Amino acid sequence: MKKSGLLFSSLIALAFLLFTTSCINENIVTFRSLLREMTDHESVTRYPEPSCRLVQFSSYGR
């Protein structure tokens, strides 16, 4: 019983560390940065870096 509890808490701690360290180097998106990107004629001709993806979900089902 104690082994499984220790293993579970270790996995939770490892998952927490992986999720928090993956977000450290990401750029912060602000209103000002979005406006700058939208009005820059050069940036419109290139793919965004890092790449963006739009995903939409719906709970409506027949």
Calculate Rg over CA atoms: 20 Å
Per the principal axes of the C-alpha atoms, what is the gross shape? elongated
Round the mean pLDDT to the nearest integer and report it. 77
Largest sheet: none
Beta-strand content: under 5%
Distance N terminus to C terminus? 45 Å
Please provide a written account of the structure.
The protein is mainly α and 62 residues long. The chain has helices spanning 2-21, 31-39, 41-44. It is built from 3 helices and no strands. 0% of the residues are buried. The model has no long low-confidence stretch (mean pLDDT 77).
Task: Give a summary of the structure in a few sentences.
By secondary structure, the chain is mostly helical.
How would the blueprint of this fold be written?
Layout: H1 2-21, H2 31-39, H3 41-44
Structure characteristics:
single chain; 62 residues; mainly alpha
